[in-house]
């Protein structure tokens, strides 16, 4: 492949979708009021499940955790549906939104994805970005956590079905005898009916060029890529260049800070690979962004 591309929530934000972690945290449907990330709920749920297991696996508590999880997934579905509707309403007013979308780096990135594009594209987002732009989707993205489809039919029916497409929950943080509980089992991502095992780790280890678009690389993000970064330090990857796409220099500083917070020696990483920061604030005409597009 030419490059391995991994999209985070910052990609949708750059495109103009107001469905960031911060937007959800401020939304009245957020079950963990005041937190700034969706992952705060995932962390809370994981700790509650571990506590449930260690304290004797009370059945009533297990059912309570299941209800909490179901409510969260339903609210996420409503949130994305409402934000989708809001995007199209704003987009169609006087054409201003259309012009803004078309000048975003995210739009230019999507425009570059041709049918013969050799790059593999993973996304952690629930959205399919091509549903929000005037571009044909010539290449499928690999949705790691399921997909929210734009609401085009009866809203109540569609939103009810969206919860079955979104993969949200916890990892296998307790022994199998606890996971086998009928209330806990659905909470584990691996056992979600829409879950499909991917080759993302193997692809990361074998790719020469890796593009991270829209990540802060905080605790939850880093958990997915820890093996990759450790392999870089050990010199056991094929990676030569990482393109880190973020809004501005503050985003890149946050990226480095988060890597250090996860006990990763950034200097060791830089001895093995070249990390090129790309700032979407500069627009799609800046040379670093155009250079990255040529890797696709």
Radius of gyration: 20 Å
Q: Would you identify the regions where 5 or more consecutive residues have pLDDT less than 50?
A: none
The overall pLDDT average reads 85
Largest sheet features: 6 strands, parallel
Tally of separate helices: 13
Structure description:
This protein has 296 residues and is α/β, with parallel strands linked by helices. Helices cover 47% and strands 9% of the residues. It has 13 helices and 6 strands. The chain has helices at residues 9-15, 21-26, 39-54, 59-91, 96-102, 105-112, 155-162, 176-179, 200-206, 219-234, 249-261, 266-272, 287-293; strands at residues 4-7, 120-123, 142-143, 209-213, 241-246, 274-279. It has a 6-stranded parallel beta sheet with strand order 3-2-1-4-5-6, with helices on both faces. α10 (219-234) links the parallel β4 (209-213) and β5 (241-246). The longest helix is centred in the first third of the chain and has 33 residues, at 59-91. The radius of gyration is 20 Å and the shape is globular.
Features:
alpha/beta, 13 helices, single chain, globular, 6 strands
Short account of what is shown:
The chain contains 13 helices and 6 strands. By secondary structure, it is of the alpha/beta class. The radius of gyration is 20 Å and the shape is globular.
Outline the secondary-structure elements.
Blueprint: E1 4-7, H1 9-15, H2 21-26, H3 39-54, H4 59-91, H5 96-102, H6 105-112, E2 120-123, E3 142-143, H7 155-162, H8 176-179, H9 200-206, E4 209-213, H10 219-234, E5 241-246, H11 249-261, H12 266-272, E6 274-279, H13 287-293
Parallel strand pairs: 1-2, 1-4, 2-3, 4-5, 5-6
Helix pairs in contact: 3-4, 4-7
